[in-house]
Amino acid sequence: MAASPSFRSAAAAGVLLAMVVAAVCLPGAAAQLCEDYYDDTCPDAYDIVKQVLMDAHQSDTRIFASLIRLHFHDCFVQSEKESPPNNGSARGFPVVDAVKAALEDSCPGVVSCADILAIAAEISVELSGGPSWGVLLGRLDGKTSDFNGSLDLPAPTDNLAVLQQKFSNLSLNDVDLVALSGGHTFGRVQCQFVTDRLYNFSGTNMPDPTLDSSYRAFLSQRCPRNGAPASLNDLDPTTPDTFDKNYYTNIEVNRGFLNSDQELKSSPQAQGTTAPIVDQFAGSQDAFFASFAQSMINMGNIRPVTDPSQGEVRTNCRRVNGS
User: Fold this and answer.
1) CATH code, domain carrying 245
2) Are residues 170 and 279 in the same domain?
3) How far apart (Å, rounded) are the C-alpha atoms in residues 237 and 250?
4) Which of 120, 203, 205, 228 has an alpha carbon 20 to 30 Å from 30's alpha carbon atom?
5) Is 73 a catalytic residue?
6) What pLDDT digit, counting tens, does each position of 50-103 carry?
Protein backbone atom coordinates (compact mmCIF):
# COMPACT_ATOMS: atom_id res chain seq x y z
CA MET A 1 0.00 0.00 0.00
CA ALA A 2 1.45 3.37 -1.00
CA ALA A 3 1.90 6.21 1.44
CA SER A 4 -0.79 8.89 1.64
CA PRO A 5 -0.43 11.43 -1.20
CA SER A 6 -0.25 14.31 1.28
CA PHE A 7 2.71 12.56 2.89
CA ARG A 8 4.75 13.53 -0.13
CA SER A 9 3.15 16.79 -1.17
CA ALA A 10 5.05 20.02 -1.70
CA ALA A 11 4.18 23.26 0.06
CA ALA A 12 0.59 24.41 -0.36
CA ALA A 13 1.88 27.47 -2.16
CA GLY A 14 2.78 25.15 -5.01
CA VAL A 15 6.48 25.91 -4.75
CA LEU A 16 8.72 22.94 -5.43
CA LEU A 17 11.05 22.37 -2.52
CA ALA A 18 14.50 21.71 -3.92
CA MET A 19 15.87 19.05 -1.64
CA VAL A 20 18.62 16.60 -2.47
CA VAL A 21 17.79 13.31 -0.77
CA ALA A 22 20.21 10.42 -0.68
CA ALA A 23 19.21 7.47 -2.82
CA VAL A 24 19.97 5.07 0.00
CA CYS A 25 17.22 5.05 2.63
CA LEU A 26 17.15 1.69 4.31
CA PRO A 27 15.53 0.99 7.69
CA GLY A 28 18.21 -0.21 10.10
CA ALA A 29 21.08 1.39 8.19
CA ALA A 30 22.74 4.73 8.90
CA ALA A 31 21.62 6.97 6.04
CA GLN A 32 20.19 10.35 5.25
CA LEU A 33 16.53 10.98 5.84
CA CYS A 34 13.99 10.42 3.07
CA GLU A 35 10.24 10.63 2.53
CA ASP A 36 9.57 6.97 1.75
CA TYR A 37 11.39 5.50 4.75
CA TYR A 38 8.30 3.66 6.07
CA ASP A 39 6.65 2.82 2.74
CA ASP A 40 7.38 -0.89 3.14
CA THR A 41 7.65 -1.29 6.91
CA CYS A 42 4.71 0.86 8.06
CA PRO A 43 2.85 2.26 5.03
CA ASP A 44 -0.10 3.53 7.07
CA ALA A 45 2.06 5.53 9.49
CA TYR A 46 0.95 8.97 8.29
CA ASP A 47 -2.74 8.12 8.35
CA ILE A 48 -2.46 6.56 11.81
CA VAL A 49 -0.79 9.68 13.22
CA LYS A 50 -3.35 11.93 11.52
CA GLN A 51 -6.32 10.08 12.96
CA VAL A 52 -5.00 10.24 16.53
CA LEU A 53 -4.32 13.97 16.15
CA MET A 54 -7.77 14.66 14.75
CA ASP A 55 -9.35 12.79 17.66
CA ALA A 56 -7.20 14.70 20.17
CA HIS A 57 -8.06 18.05 18.63
CA GLN A 58 -11.75 17.54 19.34
CA SER A 59 -11.10 18.02 23.04
CA ASP A 60 -7.96 20.17 22.91
CA THR A 61 -7.81 22.99 20.35
CA ARG A 62 -4.29 23.83 21.51
CA ILE A 63 -2.80 20.46 20.66
CA PHE A 64 -1.62 21.29 17.14
CA ALA A 65 0.47 24.25 18.33
CA SER A 66 1.78 22.17 21.24
CA LEU A 67 2.94 19.35 18.98
CA ILE A 68 4.86 21.57 16.59
CA ARG A 69 6.59 23.09 19.61
CA LEU A 70 7.64 19.62 20.78
CA HIS A 71 9.15 18.92 17.35
CA PHE A 72 11.00 22.23 17.42
CA HIS A 73 12.51 21.51 20.84
CA ASP A 74 13.41 17.95 19.87
CA CYS A 75 15.19 19.03 16.69
CA PHE A 76 16.82 22.13 18.09
CA VAL A 77 18.57 20.62 21.09
CA GLN A 78 17.14 17.14 21.78
CA SER A 79 16.22 18.57 25.16
CA GLU A 80 15.15 16.90 28.37
CA LYS A 81 11.46 17.17 29.28
CA GLU A 82 12.11 18.42 32.82
CA SER A 83 14.69 21.08 31.89
CA PRO A 84 13.72 24.69 32.74
CA PRO A 85 12.41 25.86 29.33
CA ASN A 86 10.25 22.72 29.03
CA ASN A 87 9.09 21.97 32.56
CA GLY A 88 5.52 23.18 33.05
CA SER A 89 5.49 24.57 29.52
CA ALA A 90 5.95 21.80 26.95
CA ARG A 91 2.73 19.79 26.56
CA GLY A 92 1.15 17.17 24.32
CA PHE A 93 2.98 14.14 25.68
CA PRO A 94 -0.18 12.03 26.22
CA VAL A 95 -1.07 12.50 22.54
CA VAL A 96 2.41 11.38 21.53
CA ASP A 97 1.87 8.33 23.76
CA ALA A 98 -1.44 7.63 22.00
CA VAL A 99 0.18 7.90 18.57
CA LYS A 100 2.98 5.59 19.63
CA ALA A 101 0.52 3.01 20.97
CA ALA A 102 -1.46 3.06 17.73
CA LEU A 103 1.68 2.63 15.65
CA GLU A 104 2.94 -0.18 17.87
CA ASP A 105 -0.35 -1.99 17.28
CA SER A 106 0.03 -1.65 13.52
CA CYS A 107 3.79 -2.02 13.04
CA PRO A 108 5.60 -2.70 16.32
CA GLY A 109 9.13 -1.46 16.79
CA VAL A 110 9.26 0.43 13.51
CA VAL A 111 8.41 4.15 13.83
CA SER A 112 10.62 6.23 16.11
CA CYS A 113 9.28 8.84 18.51
CA ALA A 114 11.44 11.46 16.78
CA ASP A 115 9.72 10.69 13.47
CA ILE A 116 6.32 10.76 15.20
CA LEU A 117 7.01 14.36 16.20
CA ALA A 118 8.12 15.25 12.67
CA ILE A 119 4.98 13.76 11.13
CA ALA A 120 2.73 15.25 13.82
CA ALA A 121 4.20 18.72 13.24
CA GLU A 122 3.40 18.62 9.52
CA ILE A 123 -0.11 17.33 10.10
CA SER A 124 -0.73 19.93 12.83
CA VAL A 125 0.23 22.78 10.51
CA GLU A 126 -1.73 21.43 7.55
CA LEU A 127 -4.91 20.81 9.57
CA SER A 128 -4.67 24.37 10.92
CA GLY A 129 -4.72 25.87 7.43
CA GLY A 130 -0.99 25.98 6.80
CA PRO A 131 1.26 24.39 4.19
CA SER A 132 2.10 20.74 3.77
CA TRP A 133 5.54 19.38 2.94
CA GLY A 134 7.27 16.10 2.28
CA VAL A 135 8.42 14.95 5.71
CA LEU A 136 11.91 13.45 5.64
CA LEU A 137 12.02 10.37 7.87
CA GLY A 138 14.40 7.79 9.24
CA ARG A 139 15.39 9.32 12.57
CA LEU A 140 16.19 7.09 15.50
CA ASP A 141 15.52 8.06 19.10
CA GLY A 142 18.56 9.12 21.07
CA LYS A 143 19.71 6.98 23.96
CA THR A 144 20.45 10.06 26.05
CA SER A 145 18.85 13.48 26.52
CA ASP A 146 20.49 16.81 27.29
CA PHE A 147 19.09 18.52 30.40
CA ASN A 148 21.18 21.65 29.93
CA GLY A 149 20.91 21.71 26.14
CA SER A 150 17.47 23.27 26.27
CA LEU A 151 19.06 26.38 27.74
CA ASP A 152 20.28 27.05 24.19
CA LEU A 153 16.73 27.19 22.88
CA PRO A 154 15.58 30.61 21.63
CA ALA A 155 14.08 32.37 24.64
CA PRO A 156 11.12 34.78 24.73
CA THR A 157 13.39 37.51 26.10
CA ASP A 158 16.22 37.07 23.58
CA ASN A 159 17.25 40.05 21.48
CA LEU A 160 17.84 39.69 17.76
CA ALA A 161 21.60 39.22 17.99
CA VAL A 162 21.17 36.31 20.40
CA LEU A 163 18.46 34.75 18.26
CA GLN A 164 20.59 35.00 15.14
CA GLN A 165 23.54 33.44 16.91
CA LYS A 166 21.50 30.53 18.25
CA PHE A 167 20.16 29.78 14.78
CA SER A 168 23.53 30.26 13.12
CA ASN A 169 25.07 27.77 15.55
CA LEU A 170 22.80 25.17 13.92
CA SER A 171 23.46 26.34 10.34
CA LEU A 172 20.06 28.04 10.13
CA ASN A 173 19.92 31.49 8.55
CA ASP A 174 17.77 34.62 8.93
CA VAL A 175 15.04 33.25 6.66
CA ASP A 176 14.84 30.15 8.85
CA LEU A 177 14.69 32.34 11.97
CA VAL A 178 11.85 34.50 10.68
CA ALA A 179 9.94 31.64 9.05
CA LEU A 180 10.13 29.28 12.02
CA SER A 181 9.16 32.10 14.39
CA GLY A 182 5.95 32.17 12.35
CA GLY A 183 4.96 29.05 14.26
CA HIS A 184 3.71 31.60 16.81
CA THR A 185 0.80 32.29 14.49
CA PHE A 186 -1.21 29.87 16.59
CA GLY A 187 -1.21 28.62 20.16
CA ARG A 188 -1.16 30.15 23.64
CA VAL A 189 1.48 31.64 25.92
CA GLN A 190 1.67 32.35 29.64
CA CYS A 191 1.51 35.86 31.11
CA GLN A 192 4.90 35.44 32.76
CA PHE A 193 6.54 35.81 29.36
CA VAL A 194 5.14 39.30 28.74
CA THR A 195 5.04 40.94 32.19
CA ASP A 196 8.51 42.48 31.83
CA ARG A 197 7.44 44.12 28.57
CA LEU A 198 4.34 45.49 30.25
CA TYR A 199 5.81 46.80 33.51
CA ASN A 200 9.61 46.70 33.69
CA PHE A 201 11.21 46.49 30.27
CA SER A 202 14.99 46.11 30.53
CA GLY A 203 14.82 47.12 34.20
CA THR A 204 13.38 50.58 33.42
CA ASN A 205 10.14 50.23 35.43
CA MET A 206 8.45 51.25 32.19
CA PRO A 207 6.71 49.30 29.41
CA ASP A 208 8.47 48.28 26.21
CA PRO A 209 8.28 51.37 23.97
CA THR A 210 7.88 49.21 20.86
CA LEU A 211 4.61 47.72 22.16
CA ASP A 212 1.48 49.20 20.56
CA SER A 213 -0.33 51.23 23.26
CA SER A 214 -3.79 49.75 22.69
CA TYR A 215 -2.38 46.23 22.61
CA ARG A 216 -0.43 46.98 25.79
CA ALA A 217 -3.64 48.12 27.49
CA PHE A 218 -5.38 44.91 26.41
CA LEU A 219 -2.52 42.75 27.68
CA SER A 220 -2.38 44.65 30.95
CA GLN A 221 -5.98 43.64 31.59
CA ARG A 222 -5.20 40.06 30.72
CA CYS A 223 -1.92 40.01 32.64
CA PRO A 224 -2.11 42.44 35.59
CA ARG A 225 1.11 43.22 37.44
CA ASN A 226 0.36 40.84 40.30
CA GLY A 227 -1.79 38.41 38.34
CA ALA A 228 -1.41 34.69 37.81
CA PRO A 229 1.83 34.13 35.85
CA ALA A 230 0.51 30.98 34.17
CA SER A 231 -2.64 32.61 32.73
CA LEU A 232 -2.87 31.95 29.02
CA ASN A 233 -3.14 34.38 26.12
CA ASP A 234 -3.35 33.99 22.37
CA LEU A 235 -0.02 34.45 20.63
CA ASP A 236 -1.97 35.77 17.66
CA PRO A 237 -5.03 37.70 18.90
CA THR A 238 -6.53 37.90 15.39
CA THR A 239 -6.72 34.22 14.35
CA PRO A 240 -5.37 32.28 17.36
CA ASP A 241 -6.02 28.75 16.06
CA THR A 242 -5.31 29.28 12.37
CA PHE A 243 -1.94 28.93 10.70
CA ASP A 244 -1.65 32.06 8.56
CA LYS A 245 0.51 35.16 8.00
CA ASN A 246 -1.17 37.25 10.71
CA TYR A 247 1.80 36.73 13.02
CA TYR A 248 3.75 39.01 10.70
CA THR A 249 0.99 41.55 10.17
CA ASN A 250 0.78 41.84 13.96
CA ILE A 251 4.53 42.48 14.22
CA GLU A 252 4.27 45.13 11.53
CA VAL A 253 2.04 47.19 13.85
CA ASN A 254 4.02 46.47 17.05
CA ARG A 255 1.68 43.76 18.30
CA GLY A 256 4.15 40.96 18.75
CA PHE A 257 3.43 39.24 22.06
CA LEU A 258 6.97 38.15 22.91
CA ASN A 259 10.04 40.34 22.87
CA SER A 260 11.70 37.78 20.61
CA ASP A 261 8.84 38.20 18.14
CA GLN A 262 8.95 42.00 17.95
CA GLU A 263 12.74 42.01 17.72
CA LEU A 264 12.47 40.54 14.21
CA LYS A 265 10.99 43.85 13.04
CA SER A 266 11.82 46.53 15.60
CA SER A 267 15.42 45.84 16.57
CA PRO A 268 17.87 48.34 15.05
CA GLN A 269 19.81 45.33 13.77
CA ALA A 270 16.69 44.04 11.99
CA GLN A 271 16.91 46.61 9.23
CA GLY A 272 18.58 44.93 6.28
CA THR A 273 18.41 41.49 7.94
CA THR A 274 15.16 40.14 9.37
CA ALA A 275 12.81 43.14 8.94
CA PRO A 276 12.59 42.82 5.13
CA ILE A 277 11.72 39.14 5.54
CA VAL A 278 8.96 40.05 8.00
CA ASP A 279 7.69 42.57 5.45
CA GLN A 280 7.70 39.94 2.71
CA PHE A 281 5.79 37.39 4.76
CA ALA A 282 3.30 39.99 6.00
CA GLY A 283 2.55 40.82 2.37
CA SER A 284 2.46 37.29 0.98
CA GLN A 285 1.10 34.24 2.73
CA ASP A 286 2.34 32.09 -0.15
CA ALA A 287 5.89 33.31 0.45
CA PHE A 288 5.59 32.57 4.17
CA PHE A 289 4.14 29.10 3.60
CA ALA A 290 6.84 28.13 1.11
CA SER A 291 9.65 29.36 3.36
CA PHE A 292 8.14 27.81 6.46
CA ALA A 293 7.87 24.40 4.77
CA GLN A 294 11.50 24.57 3.64
CA SER A 295 12.69 25.78 7.04
CA MET A 296 10.86 22.93 8.78
CA ILE A 297 12.77 20.52 6.56
CA ASN A 298 16.01 22.35 7.33
CA MET A 299 15.30 22.17 11.06
CA GLY A 300 14.41 18.48 10.82
CA ASN A 301 17.88 17.87 9.40
CA ILE A 302 19.71 19.22 12.45
CA ARG A 303 21.94 16.37 13.57
CA PRO A 304 19.35 13.58 13.24
CA VAL A 305 20.33 10.27 14.81
CA THR A 306 20.38 7.63 12.06
CA ASP A 307 23.18 5.32 13.19
CA PRO A 308 21.77 2.24 15.00
CA SER A 309 24.84 2.21 17.23
CA GLN A 310 23.81 5.61 18.59
CA GLY A 311 20.02 5.39 18.56
CA GLU A 312 17.01 3.12 18.77
CA VAL A 313 13.28 2.97 18.15
CA ARG A 314 11.77 3.43 21.58
CA THR A 315 8.80 1.32 22.55
CA ASN A 316 7.79 4.04 25.02
CA CYS A 317 8.50 7.64 24.06
CA ARG A 318 9.03 8.66 27.68
CA ARG A 319 12.02 6.45 28.32
CA VAL A 320 15.00 4.71 26.76
CA ASN A 321 14.41 1.03 26.01
CA GLY A 322 15.32 -1.18 28.95
CA SER A 323 15.16 1.61 31.53
Assistant:
1) 1.10.420.10
2) yes
3) 9
4) 120
5) yes
6) 999 999 999 999 999 999 999 888 877 554 444 444 444 466 899 999 999 999
* Cα separation values, 109 from 37, 67, 233, 316, Å: 14, 22, 39, 10
Indicate the pTM of the whole model: 0.85
Contact 162, 272 (CB under 8 A): no
| Alpha helix (H) residue ranges in 150-284 | 160-168, 174-181, 195-199, 213-222, 246-252, 259-266, 275-283
Among the listed residues 57, 71, 73, 184, the single catalytic one is 73
- pLDDT at site 76: 74
Domain count across the chain: 2
How far apart are alpha carbons 211 and 257 in whole angstroms?
A: 9
Given pLDDT bands bounded at 50, 70 and 90, which one contains residue 314? very high
Whole-angstrom distance, CA of residue 246 vs CA of residue 53: 24
Task: Look up the CATH number of the domain holding residue 105.
Answer: 1.10.520.10
148 pLDDT above the threshold of 70: no
pLDDT at 152: 76
Look at residues 189, 191, 157, 229 and name the one whose alpha carbon lies nearest to residue 90: 189
